[in-house]
Amino acid sequence: xxxxxxxxxxxxxxxxxxxxxxxxxxxxxxxxxxxxxxxxxxxxxxxxxxxxxxxxxxxxxxxxxxxxxxxxxxxxxxxxxxxxxxxxxxxxxxxxxxxxxxxxxxxxxxxxxxxxxxxxxxxxxxxxxxxxxxxxxxxxxxxxxxxxxxxxxxxxxxxxxxxxxxxxxxxxxxxxxxxxxxxxxxxxxxxxxxxxxxxxxxxxxxxxxxxxxxxxxxxxxxxxxxxxxxxxxxxxxxxxxxxxxxxxxxxxxxxxxxxxxxxxxxxxxxxxxxxxxxxxxxxxxxxxxxxxxxxxxxxxxxxxxxxxxxxxxxxxxxxxxxxxxxxxxxxxxxxxxxxxxxxxxxxxxxxxxxxxxxxxxxxxxxxxxxxxxxxxxxxxxxxxxxxxxxxxxxxxxxxxxxxxxxxxxxxxxxxxxxxxxxxxxxxxxxxxxxxxxxxxxxxxxxxxxxxxxxxxx
Length: 457
Fold this sequence. Notes:
- The protein is of the alpha/beta class.
- It is built from 21 helices and seven strands.
- Helix content is 54%, strand content 7%.
- The protein has a five-stranded parallel β-sheet, sandwiched between helices.
- The termini are far apart.
- The model is unreliable at 235-243 (pLDDT under 50).
């Protein structure tokens, strides 16, 4: 099976790199750093498919430095330490080879000062997915110059990268590819396809390809690969590899083919929404087995654990609520744990929480109550707060009746005083209807004792 077209077309020298002229153009800041060989540790921040990984790789080729790479989705502190040990061994070996010449060589009158060997490059993709402890493990090596660190992220590093690491790095912002840069990428891809497949490709219109890409070079090449492969296969037949018939691309044709092959073109995007939907619905439907399965699918596919934990926090209030108030506490603790320890260890906490939420009694009463309240506010506007429950910090307000006739609940039997709290026009309107579960039935019985006549509990 051939690798994706985007991988086949990955540049092998900086002169073939497309995009980021503000960083890599003549006289630009990163270009100067590479030319001088004084490369700082850095974080490359930008949207997907704009060349972050490729740029890091090309820098290492240009400077002829060892290139170690880790993925934050699949690596932990142990993997970082192993790479750093390799980097230290490389530097020690380089220093040894720089030592004074053999005894048979005449010493120079003034030997030149020894130049420290350049450190290897450590590239970590999706650095925002590293936990605090994982990022901490990089600090000493970056500080001592054991490695030149390059991190790639699609998230704002101000929020996702710890301050000590951020202070040791330059942050370079990468931009989506322009229309002209996408056109250049299409031209190179077409030339490559014609050279390697023997097909003649004519791109009459490129607007659809560029629109589909959204400035993402990888998406552009994925789309082009699907369209050309499909049309080329139709033209040549199953067993042939060449044809005299040109493959002609128009905007309408590209749009139709991509729409029919959307799962192949954007598999990760589709799975992202389908899997999280299945995960949430499994927990809402009280099926812990399905919940754990879809959790595993998302983790295996590289989904951000913080995104999963965030969605469980929402479910704890939306679908469980006061049927089991501890669900929100556990979901919040899970989110905090994911932040602290990161993947892969946090997979256990995510599993524990998903099972707990799936097995918990369900109620959407709190969710329904606030939506009813917001809809009522939209209909009635800002109704005045009753005078008796208004704040009265000044004598004028007291003279106007603010706070008069307010009954302090703790002065009455059962810590309850029967009085009106809703604005005029909304008296007796019931926003909260307790759910049909043991905990909220207990709440209903309590409210019935207090408000049977007013709200009809």
